[in-house]
Amino acid sequence: MNSVTYSIANKKTAEPHPRSLLLGGLVHKLSFFLIVILWIAAADAAVIRGTVRDDHGHALPYVNVIVDGTQRGTTTVDDGSFHLTDIEPGQWTLRFTLLGFENQKLTADLNQDTLALAVTMTESAIELGNVDITTDRIPTGIAPHEPIRTEIISGEDIQARSVGGTMMSALEGESSLKTRPCAMCGSHGIGMQGMDASYTEVSVDGMPVFSGLGTLYGLDGLAAADVSQVEMVKGSGSNEAGSAAMAGALNLVSVKATDSTSLRASASVNQYGQNNVSASATGLLLRLPMRFSISQQSQPTRIDNDKDGVTDTPKLHRTNLLWSTALPNAAGGEITLSNRLYHERRFAGELAWSKGDRGSADVYGREVLTSRYEGGAGYLSRSAPTRFSLDAAWVIHEQDSWYGTTEFDAQQQIAAAKAAMDHSWSAAHTSTAQLAYTYQNYGDNLRLATVTDQRWSVPGIMVQHTWSPRERWTLQAGTRAEYYEEDGVVFVPRGSAQWKSDHGTTVRFSAGAGYRPVTIFSLDEAVMMGFEDITLDENLRAERSTSFNLNLHQAWTGRSVAGNVDVNAFYTHFDHKAIIAFGSHHNQTVYTNADRAYNRGVEVQARVSEGQGWSFKAGATRSEMRYRANGRWRYGELQHIYSGDARLGKIWRKAGIKSELSADVVGPQYLPEGRSRVKSPPYVLWDATAAKTWNHFEVTLAVKNIFDWTQSDNPYPRDPTTGRLMTDTALMYGPLIGRTVFCGVSYFL
């Protein structure tokens, strides 16, 4: 094997990158300005607000409130209240729908800044069959009308599950979706179907703004309050989001400037001093709907509960600013604009480390400074039967990092554009066409035998047709064609079939391909985790995959109980899969292609809810990743063999109280050779939350890792000769910090 060994020039000390300082300073200067704007926007908002109650006067949460003839809608919160912003003066008809209650319609005249409504809904005496409600938002669960299996997490559930206000904490414990912890770097990746996080395509509003550095050091900064919905497609159907989505695709749908919440502020803190403060406002400013959001999270102290002289979780400070607006168009369409600034500094390592120890071999520390800017623009035409959209996004990501003696200084720019058209030929035929272009420019300070600085452009086209030959059948086929300089035109096809019965049964089958060029940057996980000695095969080939998914979904609805069971079997075959061959010595890492590889498994989910406020959800995944290298079959390192989750929740609507007990089962994973054990031990993390809502306030108490479980293996061995700290990230399979108690308060209008 021809190989090159990657090394990085070391410096004793270094100052943060000047451009990072520029973006960081800009973030802090804008913070105060945006706080003022939040209140101005809220004060200038014109709204329809009200409450929805049943015949007994009890508040009704989760009622769908829809403005007829528009795309506007919202959902009532726990106290039954709702409000809609940016409604033009005139007469409007509002529809109120809730499972188990009769639909209500109310016509109202809006001729003032605020209109207050009181709505009463009557419980339905008829047992419900299949009910289809079409809104912009879909409740948490499996999307019922998509031929490709699509999982949805609603904005309400994101807010409820988030601890500390971060988006990543809301995703922890989702079935077949794992966020691998890293106690030293503090970052999380999003893995699906038992595969590495690098095989998951992450996008925001359908645009690929996260790649490489952004996935590892950008996702942590996303605020849960800025996301209205999460869409997940796993396996073979995910290449619609991108050819590299071999494990799956995750799309974060942003809260729109035209959404209904006008003002929300929250704060939380735990016993270690970790705190989060956030505020967001949506309303009219200069006669335009606008949304402003600011969040700051801080872990001000270095925590070392096990007294080994090394931090158990990173010390950090991050600031996130977001602004968006919507501009009405005379043709009936909508133009959207958005900007986001993110700045973070985090540290992990020996407690004795100081800034003067940057690059030092005597005192080990990892300091990561991240500055990131995202911008976006879009146009959506709502004319029927053809819908047309234009979207563009641009990203500037700057990284200034020290991993012990290793400096990693990198910059990345991304620009993406997409033009899409959906046309409905008839009730049975719908076509979609899309033109896309992605540009990336990447540079770093690596001094290598081969050049890592890269600039590449990828134009592409996607076509798709959906056909419903019969009432119960839906067929969908499409392909993505992209041009790469090294491999030319690459076709990535996919197809699916769906059958639905009249009794809540849905069967889906899908197949698709994947393609991913392999570069030092696409395999940056080892660099980001601090591996120092990296060897890369000069002849690495692009990865290709072929995937199959078979899904059975059974749903039922009774008078007071509803539920569903979902079973999904998956198989992926790889050609030239890139593998990380970990050396027997700490920090030794080799990248190469496997002769053959596959990933297979099954995932099961079940959900039950009933009219008295009880709900239960459970899921389990069993997967097997294997590859053949040098004539020998091996199990994929650091991939979970099985995982599971369970949640039991209860809502006391009259009292405004909700609670949840959850368990996250983390199965064993095969460790690289040379460690003290073949597999990491399985473990279960238990969490509990309780919240009380009254008027416009909510108080939350959360306990993470109730039984105080921490991993027993030491990922920080010391050199027996020098006594210097070494890191073995292969042994970072679980938390190093135990029970954590959070307390938070929120105010909303």
What is the name of the CATH architecture of the largest domain?
Answer: Beta Barrel
**Globular, elongated, flat, extended or rod-shaped: what is the shape?**
globular
pLDDT below 50 for ≥5 consecutive residues: which ranges? 1-16, 18-22, 36-45, 125-137
Q: Give the number of domains.
A: 2
Kindly provide the radius of gyration, computed on alpha-carbon positions and rounded to a whole number of angstroms.
26 Å
Mean pLDDT: 81
Number of helices: 5
Structural class: mainly beta
Give the helix proportion (percent range).
under 10%
CATH topology of the largest domain: the name is Maltoporin, Chain A
CATH top level class name of the largest domain: Mainly Beta
- How much of the sequence lies in strands comes to over 45%
Q: State the distance separating the first and last CA atoms.
A: 63 Å
Task: Please give the largest β-sheet.
Answer: 22 strands, antiparallel, barrel
* Total E-strand runs: 41
Short description:
By secondary structure, the chain is mainly β.
Describe the protein in words.
With 749 residues, the protein is mainly β. Helices cover 6% and strands 52% of the residues. It has 5 helices and 41 strands. A hairpin with a 6-residue loop joins strand 6 (90-97) and strand 7 (104-110). The longest helix has 26 residues, at 18-43. The termini are far apart. The relative contact order is 0.12.
